[in-house]
Design a protein that fits this description.
This is Multisubunit potassium/proton antiporter PhaF subunit. It is a multi-pass membrane protein. It comes from Phyllobacterium leguminum. By secondary structure, this protein is mostly helical. It has one domain: Helix Hairpins. It has 3 helices and no strands. Helix 1 packs antiparallel against helix 2 and helix 2 runs antiparallel to helix 3. The longest helix is centred in the N-terminal third of the chain and has 29 residues. The relative contact order is 0.11. The model has no long low-confidence stretch (mean pLDDT 92).
């Protein structure tokens, strides 16, 4: 019984994450300002990371968790760089 519940809950979570990523892409394309686009890209990265985590739970492979960790680190650094660029106009001082 618990395997069936785990399967359906992971499937529903993955569908919701794909929907959230699609909405983030819409905001990325239609965002009127650069700040909206940076926020949408960050939301897309978070959705991709969580989608990889759910794939890792479903398959039991640790490779997905490592890829999710790399995406999390890269998204954090890229969001900081984009925010610094939007505030000061330069990334490297």
């Amino acid at each position: 019984m618990s395997v069936v519940i785990l399967f359906w809950s992971l499937l529903i979570a993955q569908l919701m994450l794909v929907t959230a990523m699609a909405l983030a892409v819409v905001r990325l394309i239609l965002g009127p300002r650069a700040e909206d686009r940076v926020l949408a890209m960050d939301a897309f990265y978070i959705g991709a990371m969580l989608l990889l985590v759910t794939f890792g739970i479903r398959t039991g492979s640790t490779l997905y968790f490592e890829a999710a960790l790399i995406i999390a680190l890269l998204s954090f650094v890229s969001t900081l760089a984009a925010a610094k660029f939007l505030m000061r106009g330069e990334v490297i001082e």
